[in-house]
Every structure is written in C-alpha cells, then in structure tokens.
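Page 37, continued from 36.
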C-alpha cells in the first residue's frame, strides 16, 4: 500500500505480501516493440527488469497471458522498502539496475523526479486513469495504485482488555494507549513517511512536533520497515503472532485486514484486525521508465501492462491496494473486509517536496534521540 502506501501501499496493502527476493516472471509487451526492434535491425530484447519495493506481486496466470502474447520475460528485482528502493535508484542514476521502477509514491515522488531517474512516457490506456492521480505533468511516472496509510489494531487485544480501540490521531496520544503503538521510520519507510505527513496535515506545520512529543512520551516504538513493524512487532498479524509481537497498534494500510482473512488458516469469517479510520493518509504509487534503461521499448510495454484492466483487477488481492483504472473492479473479499476511508489526510505534492526532508530531520531529532 509504499508505500501506500502504501495504501495502500501500500495498502498495501501492497506491502502486505511477503518479500520474494529476485524473481523471474512472465510479462508483457506489444507488437510495437517488435516492430521497433525490426526497424533498428536488432533483435527485440527478451528480458525487461522491473525494480520495485519488496511488496510487488502479480499472479502467474496474468503474467503468463502476456508472455503468450509477446514472448517477453520480466525479471523482478526487489530492493527493500520503497524509500530504500528509491534511494538505490538515485545512487545508480543513468546506470540503473533495471528498465522500469515501480513503487515510488506521492510522498517520495519529488525526490525521484528532482534527481532525474525517470524519462517521460505517456502510457497507453492513461485516459482510463482519473486526472487526480496524474501528479506529474511531464508524464515521467504513471499512476498504478492507491491506498490509505492508517493505524491498524488487534481486535482480540482490545476485546480482551475491554478497551475501545483508538479512532483518531488524538486518541493515540492518550494514556490508555501507552506503549501500544509501533511505527516505521519515515526516513526509510514509505508508510512511516505517510504517517508523518498525515500528522503534519492534521496538526499543521507548527503543530505536528508537539504531537510527536506526546507520542514519544506515550511510548511509541519505531522500527526501520513495515515488514518489521507489521510482521514482527504487531500482535494482530499472523506473522506478529508467530514472532510474539506485543504491540496491538501498527501503522499499515486500510486494506490490511483482507490479507489476514485471505491467508488465515483456517480462513476467518471476520478480519482479526481493524482500522483506525481517523489516522489515515492517502497514498498513490507510480511506475516510471528508468533513465538509462537497457530495454526502453520493453519498459514502455511493461508500464502499459501495469495499467491494463487485467493487471489492475489482479492487483488488489496480490498487493492489497486499490486500482486506479476506472474500468477495474474490486474483488468481493477485498470490499467485504477492507475499509473505505472517506476523509483521509492529504497534502499537495509541492508542499511534500518542500517540507519532506526538513520534517524528516526534525522528526529524527525529536523521536530517535
């Protein structure tokens, strides 16, 4: 759902699928790719490398369908949390690890664009994506999914304690929830950054620091990644239960509960986790053609694929994020157990670009020291 991002992320959420490492997958292309290669006198490249955060996933059936059509293979290179993955691409600018990057979100978008890691490409089918998601006028990135970064809670913990779960940002700072919340470091994690921006949107440029002072006094715990927070520290997730996590509140995604249902053994009728809907920040994730890509034509075809109806409808139960294409339908399990956030916090991309880095520095000085 970065996340968002996570979420999404993402919401995630996108980030809710376990990291699979470096994977070779079947993927797509178009006849245009082969025609272009033929005109140049060179054979069409057969491999397209997609660089992503750890939560990228797609069903084998969908990818196999595109392999049938084109013969292209996609190698997926997973590079950690979204923030870490973006930073790696900045360091390798002009000589990238792959052809397409997926997973940069609105919280990190200006950093990627300002460092010139993408080149413009107007994806086929972009007319099916609402203008509200298209944040770069130069079309260096293509929106792929959206989600809401929100605090999730362990229903059993709060039922056992006969304590109402928190609903709002304000609630999280109350004594009743002392030592219960785990968050991600916004310098390394897109959900963590989204949550920080959500607090800034809620309390203002000069008020969020006081809020975090209260959270710190109330025992908030910080870890480097969503994976650690959700699957190790959070008592409500399947992974957290196995790891004996003791934090019943975690920054994740509004779409996280369907994951616990889908992968539950046995599968529960009701999600064991809930969402504090007054703690959410809206995230959109993008894909872009990397500057210096070895296979730019294959990369363009891959970006077209990411907003195709088939991939968009496959995505919710693979990465637990919302599709951005208007013609993509959500699966029933996703709609039944996910949460619709009517009024998430948002922030203009220009303000994120201006404030993000100094806010992260202020947050680090305030919370980590």
């Amino acid at each position: 759902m970065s996340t968002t991002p996570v979420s999404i992320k993402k919401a995630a959420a996108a980030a809710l699928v376990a990291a699979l490492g470096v994977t070779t997958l079947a993927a797509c292309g178009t006849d245009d790719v082969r025609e272009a290669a033929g005109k140049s006198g060179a054979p069409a490249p057969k491999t397209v490398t997609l660089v992503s955060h750890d939560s990228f996933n797609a069903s084998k059936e969908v990818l196999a369908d595109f392999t049938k059509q084109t013969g292209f293979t996609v190698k997926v290179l997973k590079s950690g949390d979204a923030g870490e993955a973006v930073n790696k691409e900045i360091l390798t600018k002009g000589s990238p690890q792959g052809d397409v990057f997926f997973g940069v979100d609105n919280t990190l978008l200006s950093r990627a664009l300002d460092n010139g890691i993408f080149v413009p490409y107007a994806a086929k089918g972009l007319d099916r994506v609402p203008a509200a998601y298209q944040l770069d006028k130069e079309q260096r990135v293509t929106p792929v999914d959206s989600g809401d970064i929100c605090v999730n809670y362990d229903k059993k913990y709060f039922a056992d304690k006969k304590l109402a779960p928190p609903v709002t940002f304000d609630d999280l700072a109350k004594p009743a929830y002392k030592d219960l919340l785990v968050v991600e470091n916004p310098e390394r994690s897109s959900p963590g950054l989204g949550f920080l921006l959500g607090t800034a949107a809620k309390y203002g440029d000069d008020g969020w620091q006081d809020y975090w002072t209260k959270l710190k006094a109330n025992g908030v715990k910080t870890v480097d990644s969503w994976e650690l927070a959700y699957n190790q520290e959070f008592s409500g997730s399947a992974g957290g239960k196995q790891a004996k996590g003791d934090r019943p509140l975690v920054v994740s995604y509004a779409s996280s509960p369907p994951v616990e249902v889908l992968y539950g053994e046995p599968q529960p009728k009701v999600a064991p986790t809930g969402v504090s809907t007054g703690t959410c920040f809206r995230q959109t994730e993008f894909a872009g053609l990397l500057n210096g890509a070895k296979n730019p034509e294959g990369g363009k075809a891959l970006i077209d694929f990411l907003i195709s109806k088939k991939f968009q409808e496959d995505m919710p139960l693979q990465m637990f994020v919302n599709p951005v294409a208007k013609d993509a339908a959500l699966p029933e399990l996703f709609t039944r157990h996910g949460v619709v956030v009517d009024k998430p916090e948002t922030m203009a991309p220009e303000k994120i670009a201006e404030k993000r880095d100094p806010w992260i520095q202020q947050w680090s000085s305030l919370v980590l020291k």
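DSSP finds 16 helices and eleven strands in the chain. Flag for discussion at group meeting. The radius of gyration is 20 Å.
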